[in-house]
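Attaching the record inline, Q. Sequence:
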Amino acid sequence: MSEVLVRARWVTRYVAVAVLALLAACVSAPVQEMSDARQAIHAAEEAGAAALAPEALRDAKRLLTSAERKLQREAYASARQDAREARRRAAEALEAARVAGD
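Structure, as predicted:
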């Protein structure tokens, strides 16, 4: 068997494994994303975002609640999206609180 054919088979195998890993990530529960969102919300609260950036913090909490409900229904892709957005909004609240606090 030629070296090119052997390499092509290895590349095909690696691509197949990568695709399977991506599919598994899409189907699994968004545990890390949920944790990240909770931690970001906690950090924003600790920085005073409830008083200094209430809208962004409220949005983050609403999105986290939505993600939790979707997680219970096993709508993992949608829950992951909401959790990521909750983390983003919490990060905005944290930054706004830090700027306002300075």
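The mean pLDDT is 89. The chain has one domain: 29-101.

More tomorrow.
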